User: Fold this.
Amino acid sequence: MMFRDFTLTDKEREALNAISTKIHRPAKRRIYTQGEAGRYVYRIRSGAVRLEHQLNDGRNHIFAFIWPDDMFGTIEDGVYPASAIALVDTYLFQIPYSALLNLIEIHPRIQTLFLQQALNYTRAAQRHLLLATYPLVLKRLAGFLLECSKQADFYDRHSNILTLAMDRKDIADYLGFAVETTSRMLKELEDMRLIKRLSSQRIILDRHKIMEIF
Assistant:
């Protein structure tokens, strides 16, 4: 059931579920495109999504990664200001904006839930800004890996294995450096015995030692 982790009444929860549609997007598939009319808000059931904005020079700027239970789908002037792309096999709840607005009139407490999600999004943007402005690129990458390890669906606390949902180019675009820098910094972290690479997507993290460098 959707929103089971929030303090909603059964009636409110059932009303939200009634206007939600379960959809699936395979890895690398678009959910919506920048400039497209904004008709839906989304919540991730499982998987991960990247949000990217295309700049005037044609480059894409990745400014957020969205994780299970997160919501996204902000609109500006009636359109999506960014594109949303599934990073891995992703299952979503899709909610029509028009139906949501009508529902809030009947159940006004539901608006508080979406305001809470907006605050969570703001905090995520603040963390991104902090990471992207570290003067040492090694710290940027180390901090990013720590952020990813907070996602239970992608990090096994027993084995300390992190499965990256994104590729090295995604990481580079998000943190503001070249793809080659991502590879070089991963090797440096490994040489420092802070991580151990098992494959291109799977890494063993020593979270305690990484936190010591901050």
Q: What stands out?
A: The chain has seven helices and twelve strands. The CA atoms of residues 122 and 152 lie 21 Å apart. The longest strand covers residues 40-46. The first helix runs from residue 10 to 18.
